[in-house]
Automatic annotation (TrEMBL):
Belongs to the transcription factor STAT family. It comes from Indicator maculatus. GO terms for biological process: cell surface receptor signaling pathway. It comes from the Eukaryota. This is STAT6 protein. It is found in: Cytoplasm; Nucleus. Coiled coil: none annotated. GO terms for molecular function: DNA binding; DNA-binding transcription factor activity. PROSITE patterns: SH2 (PS50001). GO terms for cellular component: cytoplasm; nucleus. Its main location: cytoplasm. Residues 114-213 form the SH2 domain. The gene is Stat6_1. Pfam families: SH2 (PF00017), STAT_linker (PF21354). InterPro entries: p53-like_TF_DNA-bd_sf, SH2, SH2_dom_sf, STAT, STAT_linker.
Length: 234
């Protein structure tokens, strides 16, 4: 006899997400010579970062992994802590409950359910944009405001939605005549939305979007992702 890789049997599709979380946790954090089904309840956050990065790159099939600033945002989300530094998080450990049991504050889903939604969306609709580093993705609304507030009118960036599973939103700067600035977040696009009209064409359609943060003209950044039929017609 020999031990197989972990298997989870489900009876309904709505259990798929939890099953994937269980298999991921077991694969990443169990010891080779452990008693079957015994896995650590808490793991170092640094180890979790490596696991999320490997999972993201494998699912999306990209060579562009998560960056230090992405890990910082993910730590703030999973620990619900916006006052700690990047270094503070490195010494912490994350529990199974924080990963896929406790509901995120003000939301109806867990950290893993949110991350898995991002994975699915990126894999299905955003692989090339992510691989071209056109999507920051893992960034908070508050930090977006800080980045965009000093930029010219129409500067924008793309972030994964906090409020909806599997959504990507465009944040852009509006500057008033008095010089005041306001960041507007466009209603998130789902995989269904992007299967109807791709992200590149949606960005091209929105006249208020001018430069991808920090200062890349949108046609230069996204031109290769515009629909070729539209370009031919033009």
């Amino acid at each position: 006899q020999t031990l197989s890789l972990p298997i989870v049997v489900i009876v309904h599709g709505n259990q798929d997400n939890n099953a994937k979380a269980t298999v991921l946790w077991d694969n990443a954090f169990s010891e080779i010579d452990r008693v079957p089904f015994v896995v650590a309840e808490r793991v170092p956050w640094e180890k979790m970062c490596d696991t999320l990065n490997l999972k993201f790159m494998a699912e999306v099939q990209t060579t562009k992994g998560l960056l230090k600033e992405h890990y910082f945002f993910l730590a703030q989300k999973i620990f619900n802590d916006h006052s700690a530094s990047f270094e503070d998080f490195q010494s912490r450990s994350v529990s199974w409950a924080q990963f896929n049991k406790e509901i995120l504050p003000g939301r109806g889903f867990t950290f893993w359910q949110w991350f898995d939604g991002v994975l699915d969306l990126t894999k299905r609709c955003l692989k090339n944009y992510w691989s071209d580093r056109l999507i920051i993705g893992f960034i908070s609304k508050q930090y977006v405001c800080k980045l965009l507030s000093t930029q010219p009118q129409g500067t924008f960036l793309l972030r994964f939605s906090d409020s909806e599973l599997g959504g990507v939103t465009i944040a852009h700067l509006i500057r008033g005549q008095d010089g005041s600035s306001q960041v507007e977040n466009i209603q998130p696009f789902s995989a269904k939305d992007l299967s109807i009209r791709c992200l590149g064409d949606r960005i091209r359609d929105l006249g208020q979007l001018r430069n991808l943060y920090p200062n890349i003209p949108k046609d230069q950044a996204f031109g290769s992702h515009y629909n070729s039929e539209w370009l031919a017609a033009e």
